[in-house]
Amino acid sequence: xxxxxxTSKVRPSGEGKAVLPLDIARIRxxxxxLKMKVHDKPLVYLDNxxxxxxxxxxxxxxxxxxxxxxxxIHRGLHYLSDQATVDYEHARxxxxxxxxxxxxxxxxxxxxxxxxxxxxxxxxxxxxxxxxDEIITTVMEHHSNxxxxxxxxxxxGAKLRVVPINDAGELILDEFEKLLNPKTxxxxxxxxxxxxxxxxxxRRMIEMAHARNIPVLIDGAQAVAHTKIxxxxxxxxxxxxxGHKIYGPTGIGVLYGxxxxxxxxxxxxxxxxxxxxxxxxxxTYNCPPHKFEAGTPHIAGGIGLGAAIEYIDNLGLDxxxxxxxxxxxxxxxxxSAIPGVRIIxxxxxxxxxxxxxxxxxxxxxxxxxxxxxxxxxxxxxHCAMPVMDRFGIPxxxxxSFACYNTREEVDALxxxxxxxxxxxxx
Length: 426
Fold this sequence. Notes:
- The chain is of the alpha/beta class.
- The protein folds into two domains: 4-46 and 316-425, Alpha-Beta Complex (Aspartate Aminotransferase, domain 1); 59-313, Type I PLP-dependent aspartate aminotransferase-like (Major domain) (Aspartate Aminotransferase, domain 2, 3-Layer(aba) Sandwich), CATH 3.40.640.10.
- It has helices spanning 24-29, 56-68, 79-99, 113-128, 147-156, 173-179, 202-210, 231-234, 259-264, 299-315, 317-336, 363-372, 385-391, 407-425, and strands at residues 11-13, 17-19, 37-38, 41-42, 44-45, 107-110, 134-138, 159-163, 184-190, 216-219, 238-242, 253-257, 275-278, 283-285, 341-343, 353-358, 375-376, 378-380, 396-400.
- Helix 2 (56-68) runs antiparallel to helix 10, helix 4 packs parallel to helix 5 (147-156) and helix 11 packs parallel to helix 14 (407-425).
- The chain is globular.
- Mean pLDDT is 94; it is low at 1-19.
């Protein structure tokens, strides 16, 4: 399946910098699951926007924790607890550096992007949102960046305002600017759309919001594995992502928050480790990040996430992004040439996600037939039903790329879609 042509070509990145090709054959050796067969066919895994596969480095980190240092953290005085605490907090520091945060106390470990957004909706919303206030989000959001704000608005008597998109799947910034007003308490927007692959101009949006003293939350679930993030350069107030989207374990994620906000907002949950003292008369809360990390955390997950970030750092996100862009361009050309195919999302700036619709064929049928040939894609509304409504379709078939994918796998996808057309033409 992997040939010399699978290695990405040298292409420009940044300001005149040349990005060297990745050794894709070597990278694929790092992912044990890619050796398996599905229905007696080689696995072609193109569902990376849903979750990425895990390199051996991450699997080893999880195994090491459970076999050599399994203990609770921040509590014990014995060797295992001390070692687990050191490794867990080392992972927090690694995330801090990865995101460019000013200090490790701005990094809160959560279950994933969904919990991070709910944390902000609950804690920030409880203190700063009231009747008549407004929250701004966009049409292209994942449900996890819609529903928590709907719940908050219903509880507080606030209003959810929505930024529209154009036919290419790009946010209409003029409409966004019109929505910003003295009643706006928060802007919540995806860095990259999971359904369209659109890369949003979040830095410009943050500048526009901050000019009116409005804080901004960025959903980075689809961005962290594909583009370098510097939260201080972006100047966002909150940034969140899920570990399983960046080659790490499930059940672990990150909320970055500016220290000034984390100090002001109340905790999301109560329990152990988020307190300094407790009496029946009064509880004194711990300082961030512990203030927001009640109970025993996903210790192995945090350590595994640290290992995943180390892995992607070693590859170099510039290299990964160049390779995925090459795959996206190649796949877009090949899929667009298939009669009856409609590409959903044609933004000028896109990440490695290709959503398409084949006339007279439901995407679930596409996904099922492709699976029989070992090709794994996602078919459905992608937890982004407003996007589907915007384009007048029930769902899309979505192929999404990662560092280990190849042009040959794109060819397998194309052959599968051609097979779908043949079957439904009969």
